[in-house]
């Protein structure tokens, strides 16, 4: 049985990322247990400062069972990890694809059905090109395809547009296809929170940019509520 808001345990891969930190803050503010998986132990204090619980685990080297142990008892898993803009092509594969697949494997093993992926607009396993960004788009696309093929997960894939650090407006455009556009990280985190509260969004791949619809309404609309 799904717990109520304020009593959920959410495990977030890439727990020190800019979107993850925002989501963790939102979860902690309503008394949910936000668990952030991080690679660098020096980042632990940043999570603790916003009310999140850090777990130090390198998703590039960890086993499925090690990750499953962290996920056991969670109500949902959120994959928000990324190799980062300064990383090379090899880490786009090991993190943006490999770690996402590992996290999904671990969620299935731990019995955590709800799985939300922060992907990228334009992610496509058949994306052409040899630049690092091309590799990134392929890696994200391959990871998304892997997750969508799983019957053991109630997955939602969120593909934001160009991320900005502008203050969130709470107003978005959320649909299967939005067209290109920017979106503040604040509003991405707010949308993730609403997706966690809306099981009816399982099985959807959604694009997200700034718009004129309140986040809660936008999520309810795509869920058919």
Protein architecture, described:
The structure is a single chain. With 225 residues, this protein is of the alpha/beta class. It has seven helices and eleven strands. The protein is globular.
Keywords, separated by commas or semicolons:
225 residues; alpha/beta; two-stranded parallel ribbon; 7 helices
Q: What gross morphology would you assign?
A: globular
Mean pLDDT over all positions: 90
Specify the structural class: alpha/beta
The major pleated sheet works out as: 9 strands, mixed
Distance between the termini: 20 Å
What's the order of the H and E elements? EHEHEHEHEHEEEEHEEH
- Overall helicity: 25-40%
Strand order in the sheet with the most strands = 3-2-1-4-5-6-10-8-11
For the secondary structure, the number of strands is 11
What's the tally of helices?
7
- Unreliable stretches (pLDDT < 50, length at least 5) are none
Cα-atom Rg, whole angstroms?
16 Å
Strand content: 15-25%
Compose a concise summary of this entry:
The protein has 225 residues and is an alpha/beta fold.
Describe how the helices and strands are arranged:
Blueprint: E1 9-13, H1 18-29, E2 33-38, H2 44-49, E3 53-56, H3 64-71, E4 76-79, H4 89-110, E5 114-118, H5 132-148, E6 154-160, E7 162-164, E8 171-175, E9 182-184, H6 185-196, E10 204-210, E11 213-214, H7 215-223
Parallel strand pairs: 1-2, 1-4, 2-3, 4-5, 5-6, 6-10, 7-9
Antiparallel strand pairs: 8-10, 8-11
